[in-house]
Amino acid sequence: HTHRIAVIPGDGIGKEVVPEGVKVLEAAASTFDFTLDFERFDYANAEYYAQHGKMLPENWFDQLVGFDSIFFGAVGWPDTVPDHVSLWGSLLQFRRHFDQYVSLRPVKLLPGVTSPLVGREPGDIDFYVVRENTEGEYSSVGGKIFEGTERETVMQETVMTRTGVDRILKYAFDLAQTRPKKHLTSATKSNGISISMPYWDTRVEAMAARYEDVRVDKFHIDILAANFVLHPDWFDVVVGSNLFGDILSDLGPACTGTIGIAPSGNINPERRFPSLFEPVHGSAPDIAGRGIANPIGQIWSASMMLEHLGETEAAAGILDAVGAVLARGGASLTPDMGGQATTAGLGDEIVTQLTGE
Amino acid sequence: HTHRIAVIPGDGIGKEVVPEGVKVLEAAASTFDFTLDFERFDYANAEYYAQHGKMLPENWFDQLVGFDSIFFGAVGWPDTVPDHVSLWGSLLQFRRHFDQYVSLRPVKLLPGVTSPLVGREPGDIDFYVVRENTEGEYSSVGGKIFEGTERETVMQETVMTRTGVDRILKYAFDLAQTRPKKHLTSATKSNGISISMPYWDTRVEAMAARYEDVRVDKFHIDILAANFVLHPDWFDVVVGSNLFGDILSDLGPACTGTIGIAPSGNINPERRFPSLFEPVHGSAPDIAGRGIANPIGQIWSASMMLEHLGETEAAAGILDAVGAVLARGGASLTPDMGGQATTAGLGDEIVTQLTGE
Ligand SMILES: CC(C)[C@H](C(=O)O)[C@@H](O)C(=O)O
Ligand SMILES: CC(C)[C@H](C(=O)O)[C@@H](O)C(=O)O
């Protein structure tokens, strides 16, 4: 097998952690005997924006559409490009045009990682957040009236389609069905948001009727967020709209102490278009350029990418290697985890663990 | 002074905890020498709905508008009334018609209360969430097209007005100015929600220019939620839109272990209309009718109500009494806190502490 991978480091620490991800992917390819064909693209970053006044070239779609996956670092450099410009000009374009309608994020308490929650052990917390990734609250539909006056009024539309809601629910129910607990939790707010959220609930009920073996419950987003802190052991697969999924998929990793190392997939399940894998952390301007960023989020994202590409053994191999290095702890971790390693040092450690050399 | 208070117990445990709140208020009035004139209203509950097909009588506004405050229990009984019906038919009507545009909730780690967060001590966490309470994401504007077909599309409008945004920001900045740290955090999502949230940010910047002594920062809601868990000590006054404030004001009390006992105020700061004080917890159908609900959320809400009415000494007295009873702990607390007391028993304990008898 040969998989064609587009590599886009982006901004800030994206540039530092992506090479570590690539290093680990190359080691996995030779250990597990498949071929990865990388091509690097130096756009979707602040330098490109400074030169061209936009984040991407005209023909980005044609350049990227033929790849099997995109291996992405991070985008965002607020000193020179406002966040909504850099994100709507790149990452959110990829999500929409490549119809990456699933954002998938594991929430998992790993050995060796300190959780901020009292008394939780590895194994206690192990679930997925499945987020709708193309529509909902992230529309650019809306506008202003009476602009600049005291009567100024701003409208922003949340748009949910049956197609959009049903396909994310189907993905989440399918995922729940593969899990031992077969339990799905839906995030709603139908008690306050009176049109879109009751609609979401109705579609969940309709889908649930087709998955009789899946146990379904729902929580309003306010108490659901609270329950991530109070009862993280309750969850197995949690599905939410674009905004609710966004919030929960940062909050979940925060609860397991993994926000700095959590991965994410922006997935087009049918593989009509390339999916994109990226760490949850952003470009981290505060530590960028110092070679101390933790590469595990990027490397864990590499594992998710291989899983998506069907290289399940290699995917598991990378995750096991990460787990072993984390469990060992100590100086070979980066400073954010109390160690003394550089970004590249920790990447090397994981390669060594993976290849058994 | 005489303050006229409308008492609305509502549904479920609201009926059990409200009498304890009233009991404590009466004790406070006689101890601190002012008069409270209570009138009870048996609407905004499922029984009323069953009889009348609506949550409130036609003339509710006229009945309630003359009161100085509304002392509210909880509403919601999903077995017989769908949540969005009960809430939009009562609580959300009060918020809108009485222009209770501030929702105020303390997030405070109290002695004797177990926080789910590792290593946090009383005093470490002590902030307010200020939530816009009338507009924003909680609009009922929107609708469906292609209903019932595969092309079904649902729209729901978020509406922000300059008046609405500026007045909540002003309240939050004013509050920040009274606090030792003078620090305000704004919840945004301008990187994903591209019209309303950048507008919110602009108004925060404009308001900040008028409060030079207040230190201002902002976080996107996803990472802000994560930071409630990771760095709750960072916050002093946190201000957010209706939805973001809703999420944060459940998440905050979850982090301090107080979700079952936290209070809230729905406030019309100008006192043109009655403000409403209610516990954060809902009607709790699972434990309703057993006389074991914890009345502290209701009693703490009583303290907030007296503060709003200008009875600051009595307000502090109630909060001190609650703190002392919590710190003592043991059997005199309700079962949710590991004790053996009934709702009324814990109410009596707090009265005794307050009156020193
Ligand atoms: C019940 C619901 C409509 C309400 C809200 O979201 O405003 C509740 O969660 C609250 O926070 O008071
Ligand atoms: C950067 C931002 C637009 C993005 C989002 O909200 O989708 C990020 O928070 C994420 O979760 O990938």
Automatic annotation (TrEMBL), chains A, B:
What family classification does the UniProt entry report for this protein? Belongs to the isocitrate and isopropylmalate dehydrogenases family.
Family matches, as InterPro entries: ICDH/IPMDH, IsoCit/isopropylmalate_DH_CS, IsoPropMal-DH-like_dom, TTC_DH
User: What reaction does this catalyse?
Assistant: (R)-malate + NAD(+) = pyruvate + CO2 + NADH
Positions of the Isopropylmalate dehydrogenase-like domain: 4-350
NCBIfam families under this entry? TTC (TIGR02089)
* Name assigned to this protein: D-malate dehydrogenase (decarboxylating)
Top-level lineage group: Bacteria
Give the UniProt keywords, A-Z.
Manganese, Metal-binding, NAD, Oxidoreductase
What EC number(s) does its UniProt record assign? 1.1.1.83
Pfam families listed in its UniProt record: Iso_dh
The enzyme's main class, written as a single word, is: oxidoreductase
